[in-house]
Write a structure and sequence with these properties.
- By secondary structure, the chain is mostly beta strands.
- It folds into 3 domains: 115 residues, no CATH class; 56 residues, Complement Module, domain 1 (Ribbon); 60 residues.
- It is 0% helix and 35% strand.
- The strands form 7 sheets. It has a 4-stranded antiparallel β-sheet with strand order 4-5-6-7, with no helix packed on it. Strands 1-2-3 form a 3-stranded antiparallel β-sheet, with no helix packed on it.
- The relative contact order is 0.11.
- The mean pLDDT is 90.
C-alpha cells in the first residue's frame, strides 16, 4: 500500500493525494480510498485497518478481502488526529492499537477484529482448488514469462480475495522456491565495464577505474570477465558470459 497520486509527477496537495494498494507486489495499483490514510496489516496480510492521516476523523476503515470492499465504524463522538495504527511485529494478530491526540490530550484505542467472528480459512495444502480458501501467487516484474526474479521463481500461498475467513495467528504460509536458468539479465557489468541503455553488451569503459599499463610484456597479460552475476541471484545453467 502507499499514498500518492496518478500523474507524471508527485503531488503534495491534500486534495490530490489518495491511498492505493497492489495485490501483485507493486506491478499494478488500484485506488483504495480517497485521501491520505495511515494503515496497518493484520492476520498475515488478510486484514487492513486504516484511518485518515491528515484530517481529524471519527472513523476507522477496514477491509478483510484485500480492498475488494471497505467498511467503517465510528471510533469516537469527537474527532481525533490519528498518529499511527500498530499491531504486533509479525502482523499475525487481529488486534490493533490506534493512538493520536484530541486537542492537547493523547488518546489510545484498542481495536479487536475477532468480534467479526469470521471462521478460520481451510484448504491451505489444496490451494487453487475450488474447495480451498487459498490460491498460489508468483511475484513477477511483468517482463519475463517464467516469472523469475533474481534467478528464482517463488510461489506463495495466500488467501483468496473472496474467501470470508481469517488465516489465524498460527497460520504458517507455504512457500516454494526453484532456481531458473540464467539469462543475460541475471548478470551485470564487472567493474571497468559499462553497457548502454537498452543493450546487454558490456564493453570496456576506459574511464580510469581500471589502470592499464602503457606497455605490456608477454608475462603481463591477464584476462578478466566483462560480466558478473547480480548479487543475490541464484540462477543455474542457461546463459553464461563469454570468457
Amino acid at each position: 500500500m502507499g499514498t500518492g497520486n496518478v500523474g507524471p509527477y508527485l503531488r503534495f496537495e491534500p486534495d490530490q493525494t489518495n491511498t492505493y494498494m497492489s495485490r501483485d507486489g507493486g506491478l499494478t495499483w488500484v485506488e483504495a480510498h480517497k485521501g491520505a490514510f495511515i494503515y496497518e496489516f493484520g492476520d498475515h496480510g488478510g486484514l487492513i485497518v486504516m484511518a485518515d492521516d491528515i484530517r481529524k476523523t471519527k472513523l476507522v476503515v477496514f477491509s478483510w478481502n484485500e480492498g475488494q470492499s471497505w467498511y467503517d465504524f465510528e471510533l469516537s463522538d469527537v474527532p481525533i488526529e490519528v498518529d499511527n495504527i500498530v499491531t504486533e511485529p509479525n502482523a499475525t494478530s487481529t488486534k490493533f492499537l490506534l493512538y493520536g491526540t484530541r486537542g492537547d490530550t493523547g488518546v489510545m484505542y484498542h481495536l479487536d477484529f475477532e468480534t467479526l467472528s469470521q471462521p478460520l480459512c481451510k484448504g491451505v495444502w489444496a490451494a487453487d482448488s475450488v474447495s480451498s480458501d487459498y490460491e498460489t501467487w508468483i511475484p513477477s516484474d511483468g517482463r519475463s514469462t517464467d516469472k523469475c526474479m533474481l534467478g528464482r521463481q517463488v510461489t506463495y500461498t495466500r488467501r483468496k480475495q473472496t474467501s470470508e475467513c481469517f488465516n489465524g495467528e498460527k497460520f504458517e504460509r507455504p512457500v516454494a522456491r526453484k532456481n531458473c536458468a540464467c539469462t543475460e539479465e541475471n548478470f551485470e557489468c564487472e567493474m571497468g565495464f559499462t553497457r548502454k541503455v537498452g543493450s546487454m553488451e558490456c564493453k570496456f569503459a576506459d574511464d580510469g577505474q581500471v589502470s592499464v599499463p602503457m606497455k605490456c610484456t608477454s608475462s603481463d597479460y591477464f584476462f578478466t570477465d566483462a560480466h558478473r552475476k547480480v548479487i543475490g541471484d541464484s540462477c543455474e545453467g542457461g546463459w553464461a558470459p563469454q570468457k
